[in-house]
Amino acid sequence: MVTAYIGLGSNLADPRSQLLTAFDELARLANGRLLAASSLYRSAPLGPAEQPDYLNAVAALETGLAPLALLAELQAIEAAHQRVRGERWGPRTLDLDLLLYGDQRLDLPTLKVPHPGLYERNFVLYPLAEIAPGLAIPGLGALGELLARCERGSLAVVEKAIHGRPHAPD
Ligand code: ROI
Predict the structure, then answer these.
(1) How many whole angstroms from 89 Cα to the centroid of ligand 1?
(2) Which CATH code is given to the segment(s) 2-160?
(3) Domains of the chain: which residue ranges?
(4) What's the pLDDT tens digit per position in 18-30?
(5) Is the entire prediction scored with pTM above 0.90?
């Protein structure tokens, strides 16, 4: 079994329920279990600014699936959320990025791990640090070092994780 980290993002069609449903779907994947889910973070769009803010989160998954099999499962979940691949960097109902797969580095035509944008994206690094603070990123070094160089900016927790699950304020 390997620990994989998945980045979740949504800025269309009720992003909060897109992400909460996606956590459940990740938890139900064959051959693994959901280890942790970060808080939900609101983030300004990277890319074209004339789109809604995003909700972002990160999940830790223990998995027996090989990287490409896991990627196929993530894409099937995206498809079930009516993800339509429109303009590059445009708005989306659900984006699931395979950020890390154990300590492996992969450079395949359809899959690059660690995810190429990981090291500079606040909406990935902060939720990742919440659930895996001591992590070393293959080829990039300590997560804490990357975090120290990454502005938090307008990133805000909108729903805090309790017992490893996002939890709406009472
Ligand atoms: N911007 C933010 N803030 N969060 C995302 O998840 C996200 N995903 C994307 C692009 C369009 C690059 N911008 C994003 O794919």
Answers:
(1) 7
(2) 3.30.70.560
(3) 2-160
(4) 999 999 999 999 9
(5) yes
